[in-house]
């Protein structure tokens, strides 16, 4: 993402393409799935994300820490009073 933030889209896309190439080469050899729950879609990201998008109820486990980090930063804007309201 640093390349994109610096405005170097060409380098950003090159890095993304290299990542995808390495990921595809490692499929079947390495467990790249960060989800700790065992399910029949473990390691099958496309299927997992598509199912979660279709149901529209919650995010896949692998997205939760990223989203929670963003929510925490937003919560700082109101001195984390949102957490108090959630706990009620």
Structural features, described:
The protein has 88 residues and is mainly alpha-helical. It has two domains: 1-32, no CATH class; 40-88, no CATH class. Helices cover 62% and strands 0% of the residues. The chain contains five helices and no strands. It is flat and about 50 Å long. The termini are far apart. 1% of the residues are buried.
Mean pLDDT across the residues is 89
Number of strands: 0
Q: Level of helix content?
A: 55-70%
β content, as a range? Answer: under 5%
Q: What's the alpha carbon Rg, rounded to whole Å?
A: 17 Å
Q: What gross morphology would you assign?
A: flat
Q: How many domains, as an integer? A: 2
H and E string: HHHHH
Describe this protein with a few key phrases.
88 residues, mainly alpha, 2 domains, flat, LPS biosynthesis protein
Summarize the structure.
It is built from five helices and no strands. It has 88 residues and is mostly helical.
Question: Which SSEs are present, and which pair or pack?
Answer:
Elements: H1 2-5, H2 9-26, H3 45-55, H4 61-75, H5 81-87
């Amino acid at each position: 993402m640093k390349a994109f933030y610096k405005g170097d889209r060409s380098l950003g896309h090159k890095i993304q393409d290299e990542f995808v190439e390495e990921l595809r080469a490692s499929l079947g050899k390495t467990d790249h799935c960060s989800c700790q729950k065992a399910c029949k879609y473990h390691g099958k990201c496309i299927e997992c994300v598509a199912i979660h998008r279709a149901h529209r109820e919650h995010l896949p486990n692998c997205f939760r820490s990223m989203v929670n980090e963003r929510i925490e930063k937003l919560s700082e804007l109101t001195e984390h009073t949102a957490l108090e309201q959630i706990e009620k």
